[in-house]
Write a structure and sequence with these properties.
Elements: H1 2-18, H2 20-26, E1 34-38, H3 46-50, E2 57-61, H4 75-87, E3 92-98, H5 102-108, H6 117-123, H7 127-133, H8 143-162, H9 166-169, E4 174-180, E5 187-191, E6 196-199
Parallel strand pairs: 1-2, 1-3, 3-4
Antiparallel strand pairs: 4-5, 5-6
Helix pairs in contact: 7-8
Length: 201
Amino acid sequence: MNRIIDGVRLFQQSVFPELMDLFGGLARGQHPRALFITCSDSRVVPDLITQSEPGELFVLRNPGNFVPPPGSRCEGVEATVEYALSILKVEHVIVCGHSDCGAMKALLDPQDVSDYPILTAWLRHATDVRRFVEQESHRHADPHQLLSIAIEQNVVRQLDNLRTYPCVASAAVQLHGWVYDIETGEVFAYRPGEERFVPLT
């Protein structure tokens, strides 16, 4: 905890003064460029990955970067999407999964989280991803490959869910699916026409 408090002190003494004009403007309102939906994983840092300044990303985080369909009783997710699109008028929504995702590992091996009922219930929002991975066509894949398939497919499914939101259907918004590789720093983007992920750059 002392390390975190020291970080706050450093921010206030050294970082904030250099960005005072930026924060002065942000204190009067925000105009983010994109809604960035990603996992709660501490290794995924949206502002760092995209080199964005404060105020540029409106961020939604949860285990597994899920976007359950409307009416799934996930009001926090629904409210965030609606606020970003209908009030802040963001023009881009990015769903960003990542390598070594604990939520996807638990999805593929639910026994590991069977003692955690809330987490188990949350993972039910991606049961269709597990069914996809368990298809006959994937039976020769090794565990690492299955995890990669699940991570990518999960991003695609969350994009599909987003399209069912009324505020998404009625807005001029572009949807993007990314997967971030923690070890290499690479970002892969989904190409719908080709149904595959390719290097973003």
